[in-house]
Write a structure and sequence with these properties.
The longest helix has 15 residues. Helix 4 crosses helix 5. 26% of the residues lie in helices and 24% in strands. By secondary structure, it is an alpha/beta fold. The radius of gyration is 24 Å and the shape is globular.
Length: 447
């Protein structure tokens, strides 16, 4: 950073307004020919439409904008910026899958805990190669994909946007050893009919979180490539993992055990009392990676923490249970439950069962209004390429009726080309639910 910018960054104006903005284009980092052009041969069409583009500098009143290349050309020596582990380092925003996004106050210490813990837990060594296919503005891509890889001397193999063919080629070409991801990426990769043509034998770790890994998909991954999917759990508020499965003993459809230096409990969300083994309640956690609160939202911060036995725990808002061995399992988000004739239906459980159907690549379960049952279960499904046109929605409903409890199986199935996702790749079930609610809303009275 140029000296005048370094000074500005440590001495903010009293009004807190942004004074300097440093920008760059992704095209600046791509190999270029002598005439400045970028070879896009072999790129997916969607990459060609945006990746090589150079944009004009943004304009904003009272803000000086600077191109990164222009600052680097000045060859300034960077200055030391004094800071401690307790200083604010980052404001990542929650994905907003359950409400409005909120800025999470992370310090250097909360970020570095999971960065350092990645080496022993994920077997991350100097010289390894990490495929970063999740965006680095997302907490997993930032902490486990980028920061941990840099800290432990690994090569980063970057995909600007998820593409299963490019991912398979990158793993083979760069002998990728670690691939942190979200389960939907694995589902998509396994849906590629030409996947067997690629050598994925260099992978030592493949895992992630953000959604449950269905048993059927994990079994296919292990049967096809001999890889066990190492599932974990964490939130933007916890700088990625609070739980993960031991690599030597991972369990399917399981969050794992608490991460290094982390404590977790299951409580009744109403009474806030700790629950016994195998009873479903809210997951609460405490550890060095837990954030310091929501930016400029004191009430939301106060609501996010509770005191248990004199210690402060963060309320995740997720339902789960812990077994006799200390492994944690997800039930679902507190706000996602479907009430069908008084029976509680957790969409994640139904989705996991649907993935056992050979035609199902992805599934999202939502609620429909039902005049008799109150709510009914509906599944929006993406079919595997190999089964498109040969399976009907009615056949999937019939299969589900045979394989699920009568109150759980989807009364309605709808096929879709893709499911809506946010920029970090997480399934936006709320979007589908809102669309369904609009369909179910009673028509306005005439006149």
């Amino acid at each position: 950073i140029a000296p005048e910018l370094a000074q500005a960054s440590t001495q903010p104006e009293a009004n807190g307004h942004l004074k300097h903005l440093v920008v760059f284009d992704l095209a600046d980092a791509l190999p270029q020919s002598a005439n400045g052009s970028i070879d896009t041969t072999g790129w997916p069409p969607v990459w060609q439409q945006w990746l090589p583009v150079r944009h004009a500098l943004p304009q904003a009143a009272g803000v000086q904008t600077h191109r990164w290349d222009d600052l680097m050309a000045q060859a300034h020596a960077p200055q030391d910026v004094p800071c401690t582990g307790a200083d604010l380092a980052l404001l990542p925003y929650t994905s907003g899958t359950t409400g409005a996004a909120k800025g999470c106050m992370h310090t250097h210490a909360t970020l570095m805990h999971n960065v350092l813990a990645a080496a022993p837990w994920l077997d991350m060594r100097a010289g390894d190669a990490v495929l970063v296919a999740v965006p680095m503005f997302h907490i997993t891509g930032l902490v486990i994909g980028m920061l941990a890889a840099i800290r432990h001397g690994c090569k980063l193999v970057l995909l600007p946007r998820w593409d299963r063919k490019q991912a398979a080629q990158a793993i083979e070409a760069h002998r990728v050893t670690h691939w942190p991801n979200i389960p939907t990426m694995v589902m998509d990769l396994l849906g590629d009919a030409n996947l067997q043509a690629h050598d994925l034998s260099s992978l030592r770790y493949i895992g992630g979180g953000g959604a449950a890994m269905p048993d059927a998909v994990a079994a296919e991954l292990e049967a096809t490539f001999g890889l066990k999917y190492v599932e974990g759990y964490g939130l933007t508020e916890t700088a990625a993992p609070t739980h993960t499965n031991p690599r030597q003993a991972p369990r399917r459809h399981c969050l794992g055990i608490p991460y290094i230096g982390t404590q977790a409990r299951i409580i009744d969300p109403g009474t806030l009392q700790e629950l016994p083994t195998n009873e479903v309640g809210e997951i609460v956690v405490r550890g060095p990676q837990v954030f310091k609160g929501y930016w400029q939202q004191p009430k939301a911060t106060a609501d996010a923490f509770i005191e248990l036995d004199g210690q402060t725990y963060f309320r995740t808002g997720d339902l789960g249970r812990v077994d006799e061995d200390g492994y944690f399992y997800m039930a679902d988000r507190l706000k996602r439950m479907i009430n069908a004739s008084g029976f509680k239906v957790w969409p994640a459980e139904v989705e996991a069962l649907l993935h056992r159907h050979p035609a199902v690549q992805e599934a999202c379960v939502i609620a429909t209004r039902d005049g008799y049952r109150g709510e009914s279960v509906k599944a929006v499904i993406v079919l595997r390429d190999s089964h498109k046109g040969s399976v009907t929605e009615e056949q999937v409903v019939a299969w589900a009726r045979e394989h699920m409890a009568v109150y759980k199986y989807p009364r309605t199935v709808e096929f879709a080309d893709a499911l809506p996702r946010n920029a970090s790749g997480k399934l936006m079930w709320r979007t589908l639910q809102a669309q369904q609610d609009a369909q179910d809303a009673p028509a306005p009275a005439a006149g």
